[in-house]
């Protein structure tokens, strides 16, 4: 999943970004509402973690404009204003969920996972393709019942390919969805990650390379 963290407290923003990247999510960061709107206009995100109290454009207005523009992006409001009235106001603006500060990081991850499953098309908690399974909530993969230990990037790439359900996913799409906005478009990171992922999943190979097009899961899904 690709996540935009909009938080003006830089220490907290860095903590969130590093923690979510550690859960195999692709994370970009904005420190004010105006920058967030620019990023949301120019790129696509599955989820936004949005602080209400932002410099520049307020978080409420960011939410309002994002919802008005349509699209699939889900919004989790994260703010110190945790009273019931404030939560109701945030939800009525169009936010999908609301979490007050201070918060438990594991709860935040669980809420983001749940929002990701509510996106269109919905993503089930356990992805399956042939004899490959990926439990996204636990970040655990297996093949034919055998556990396969994967890095965060490998998990993200496998999730993107399995979600595509046999359709081709380009290297550019993988860079955008699994890495972040700072990824070098000329890097060989995708190719090297794909090489390691194939080796860990073992033979017969379950990931095909289509020269000039991208990658896809081989064979038929379950």
TrEMBL record:
Residues of the OmpR/PhoB-type domain: 124-219
Domain annotation Response regulatory: ranges: 2-116
Keyword Phosphoprotein carried by entry: yes
GO molecular function: phosphorelay response regulator activity; transcription cis-regulatory region binding
Residues carrying 4-aspartylphosphate: 51
Membrane-spanning intervals of the chain: none
UniProt GO BP: regulation of DNA-templated transcription
Listed GO CC annotations: cytosol; protein-DNA complex
InterPro entries, A to Z: CheY-like_superfamily (IPR011006), OmpR/PhoB-type_DNA-bd (IPR001867), Sig_transdc_resp-reg_receiver (IPR001789), WalR-like (IPR039420), WH-like_DNA-bd_sf (IPR036388)
Keywords noted in UniProt: DNA-binding, Phosphoprotein
UniProt keyword Cell inner membrane, yes or no: no
DNA bind region: 124-219
SUPFAM superfamilies: CheY-like
Protein name: Transcriptional regulator
Organism annotation: Pseudosporangium ferrugineum
């Amino acid at each position: 999943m690709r996540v935009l963290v909009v938080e003006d407290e830089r220490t907290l923003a860095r903590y969130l970004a590093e923690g979510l990247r550690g859960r195999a999510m692709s994370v970009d960061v904005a420190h004010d509402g105006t920058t967030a709107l620019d990023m949301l206009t120019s790129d696509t995100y599955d989820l936004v973690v949005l602080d209400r109290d932002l410099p520049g454009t307020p978080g409420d207005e960011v939410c309002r404009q994002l919802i008005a523009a349509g699209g699939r992006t889900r919004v989790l409001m994260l703010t110190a204003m945790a009273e019931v009235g404030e939560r109701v106001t945030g939800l009525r603006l169009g936010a999908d969920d609301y979490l007050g500060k201070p918060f438990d990081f594991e709860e935040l991850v669980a809420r983001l996972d749940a929002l990701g499953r509510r996106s269109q098309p919905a993503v089930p908690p356990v992805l399956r393709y042939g004899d490959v399974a990926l439990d996204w909530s636990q970040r655990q993969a297996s093949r034919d019942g055998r556990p396969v230990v994967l890095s965060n990037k490998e998990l993200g790439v496998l999730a993107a390919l399995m979600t595509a359900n046999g359709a081709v996913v380009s290297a550019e799409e993988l860079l955008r969805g699994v890495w972040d906005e700072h990824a070098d478009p000329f890097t060989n990171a995708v190719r090297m990650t794909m090489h390691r992922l194939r080796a860990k999943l073992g033979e017969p190979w379950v990931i095909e390379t289509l020269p000039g097009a991208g990658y896809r899961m081989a064979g038929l899904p379950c």
